[in-house]
Amino acid sequence: MATLYVRDLSEEALTELKIRAARNRQSLQAYARTLLEQEAATPSLDDVVARIRERVTARLSTDDVLDEVDRGRRRE
Q: Which of 22, 31, 47, 67 can bridge 43 by disulfide, Cβ–Cβ 3.0-4.6 Å?
């Protein structure tokens, strides 16, 4: 396990984190660890966008898109 020190945290932020930890019946250390682990487990926006692009690209080829456009033109 690694150790992380946080410097220059405002008193207001520290007080709020202590209150939230107490409300969750956790120590400040346990509460902060939970927040950091949740953040680390959450995919970044760039990762989510890349996954969406992969799915869209995998499903629709350029030919598929052009075929759909042609079908739409024929219906009009």
A: 47
